[in-house]
Amino acid sequence: MKRPLLFLHGALSDRRIFASVIAALGDEREARAIDLRGHGARRAEPGPYDSMALADDVADAIARADDERLPIVIGWSLGGAVALRLAARRGVIAGAVLVATTPQLQQTKRFPYGLPASAALQRERGLRTQFDATARLFSRQVGGANAGAIAAIYACAKQASAEVAAAVFDAASQESLIDDLPSLTVPIVGIHGDADLITPLKAARFIVERAPGGAPLLVIEGAGHAPFLEKLDDFLTSLHGALASIEAASVGEAAGGDKKVQR
């Protein structure tokens, strides 16, 4: 069974960021991207903006969809954190592909692969006081050396709300999904660039090593934090592999039919 795909964007972004991926998939996959609360067409919606609240929104959207098949969620960065939250719930999604995802934004002794507290605070202050300059810097950090990727990210970022962006990063700095990892209820696969300047590859390894039974991690050489923009062909190859892995793992459940959890 080819399941529908649901793409979740990152912070300072919106559903438009996946246009090239969805176009490349063409008719081979039923795929759509949605805006998270506070982003894109939902820019004016009030918080909270933590991953749990965003996951509640996505679960509601899935429950309302006119499709009995549970989707596979492809979450990028912040969207990956939301996908992890959904993967810890039963009967909401069939699997999750985590793109450039970390279980914890801020560095701690327990998780040394995050941002130092001072760097997180500096970014939040920059978003509140010098939004455009901070959004441009963030776009360059995410897009790496790929001018097209930088332009696509900034096109979304410049239309974002400074207050929402700061609130999103503040919420992410205060939460951790580490304790959710051993209790994931669906198969996951990680896709990560080995040149990611935002989320280190070790963060992705941390996730897959703690998933029940372990999980695959597909590494795209030379890609940064937005591999689907920087190396589209390589990303599509990895995505197809990830989807095949998830659908093979969930084939037993699919034989009995899907049942959505109504929220």
Characterize the largest beta sheet: strand count, sense, and whether it forms a barrel.
Answer: 6 strands, parallel
Percentage beta strand: 5-15%
Shape category: globular
Would you tell me the overall average pLDDT?
92
Instruction: Enumerate the strands of the largest sheet in spatial order, edge to edge or round the barrel.
Output: 2-1-3-4-5-6
Structure description:
This protein has eleven helices and six strands. The two termini are 25 Å apart. Strands 2-1-3-4-5-6 form a six-stranded parallel sheet, with helices on both faces. The chain is α/β, with parallel strands linked by helices. α2 crosses α3.
TL;DR?
This protein is of the alpha/beta class and 263 residues long. The chain has helices at residues 19-25, 51-64, 78-87, 117-129, 131-143, 147-157, 162-174, 201-210, 227-230, 232-249, 251-255, and strands at 5-8, 31-34, 72-76, 95-99, 188-193, 217-220.
